Structure formats: structure tokens, C-alpha cells
Amino acid sequence: MSTVIENRTWRYATKKFDPTKKISGDDLETLLEATRLSASSYGLQPYHVIVVSDQKVKEQLKPVSWDQSQITDASHIIVFANATNFGEELVDDYLENVSKTREIPMDGLKGYSDFMKSKLMDLPAETKSTWTAKQAYIAFGNLMQAAAELRIDTCPMEGFESDKYNEILGLDDKNLNAAVVLAVGYRSEEDATQHLPKVRKSKEELFTHI
């Protein structure tokens, strides 16, 4: 079995973390760099990632996360917050980065700028928010798989009150909304879920080859 499949077979949604085990600084940096390098539409990355290690903040988040123990027991809670709306600055800021990184004059990027703005700027606000949340999920998936490669456990979580997260983490003032949460750490030996066979659709049911 290839390590690609091994890692994905090993990974499961950890229900009980060992609160005494913390992720090392080096491993955390690797996870965050994998997240930073994730693909996103046009390369725009219209989201922000909040890394929560402060136990007091985790205690605040637990009641608005359906009282799930992962929030307080995991080493870190990583919140992916999508931009709730955006204007031309999203494209302009990105292209300034492109210009600096690739040493391309801004004039040479005008055509690409006009193209992106023509596709994005006139979208309804609700569509913009949905699109940015989808982009956050791409990075979220990359982080989860990077963690599996390092044998770091994760639990993807949508069971939380996003408006309360926004309030606790001060996201409303930043035009951000908590879209999805990843608890990151190490499984407890007492977590019976780790011993259960993985349940997925069969290849025949899931895939169509044309």
C-alpha cells in the first residue's frame, strides 16, 4: 500500500484527544506552511486562518461548539474564516504580491487584473461569500492531509455557532466569518473510534469512468 493511501487510511475524525500531548513548534509551522501553499481560485486566498492555542479562548469556544471535548482537549484549534465580502482590493493586493514576487511590472498584469475583476466584482454578496468559503475548504482539506502525513490527528468540525465564533475571535470587524474548524493534536488511547473500520462508498458506487 502506498504511503498516500496509508496516511488516508490511518486518518480518522478524532473524537477524543489526549490533552497532555501538544504539537511541536516545527510541526505546527509545517502544517501552516502546507496551508499557505494550498491552491485557491486565481491564487487569491480570500480567507484568513486563526490558530488558537490559548486554553482560555478554547474554553470560551467550547460552549458554542456543541460542548464538544475536542475544542478544549486538542493541542490547537484552527479556524478557517472566509471573507464575507470583497471589492477590487482583493485582486489589487494579490497582483501587487505577484508583481513583487515575480518581478513583473504592474502594467504587465493589467489584463489579468481586468479579467479577474470582470468575473468577480459583479457577483451578488451572497455568491461572493459562498465562493470564499469554498476556497477556505480547499485549504482546510490540504491542512488535514498534511497532518495525516505527519501522523498528527485531526477532527474536522462544522458543529459550532459561527456568529459566536465571530464574536469571540473578533472576526466581524475584519469582514470575516468562521466557516469551518479543525481540531489538531494527538488521539487519546481511550478513543474507541480509532479502532473502527473506515466506512466509505465502494469504488463502483462512487466513481464513473467515461
Give me some keywords for this one.
single chain, 210 residues, alpha+beta, NADH Oxidase, four-stranded antiparallel beta sheet, 9 helices, 4 strands, 14% strand, NAD(P)H-dependent oxidoreductase, NfsB-like, flavoprotein
Structure description:
The chain has a single domain, classed as NADH Oxidase, CATH 3.40.109. Helix 2 crosses helix 7. With 210 residues, it is of the alpha+beta class. Helices cover 45% and strands 14% of the residues. The protein has a 4-stranded antiparallel β-sheet with strand order 1-2-4-3, sandwiched between helices. The mean pLDDT is 97. The chain contains 9 helices and 4 strands; from the N terminus they run ααβααβαααβαβα.
Order of SSEs: HHEHHEHHHEHEH
| Content of β-strand | 5-15%
Q: Numbering strands along the chain, what is their spatial order in the largest sheet?
A: 1-2-4-3
Give the second-level CATH assignment, the architecture: 3-Layer(aba) Sandwich
Report the CATH C-level class.
Alpha Beta
- Report, as a whole number of angstroms, the end-to-end distance: 26 Å
> On the 0-100 scale, what is the average pLDDT?
97
Count of DSSP strands: 4
Shape: globular
What's the name of the CATH homologous superfamily? NADH Oxidase
The overall number of domains is 1
Number of helices: 9
What low-confidence regions span 5 or more consecutive residues with pLDDT below 50?
none
List the helices and strands and how they pair.
Blueprint: H1 3-10, H2 25-36, E1 47-52, H3 55-61, H4 70-73, E2 76-83, H5 88-102, H6 110-120, H7 125-149, E3 153-157, H8 162-169, E4 176-185, H9 203-206
Helix pairs in contact: 2-7
Protein name: NAD(P)H-dependent oxidoreductase
Domain Nitroreductase: 10-186
Family: Belongs to the nitroreductase family.
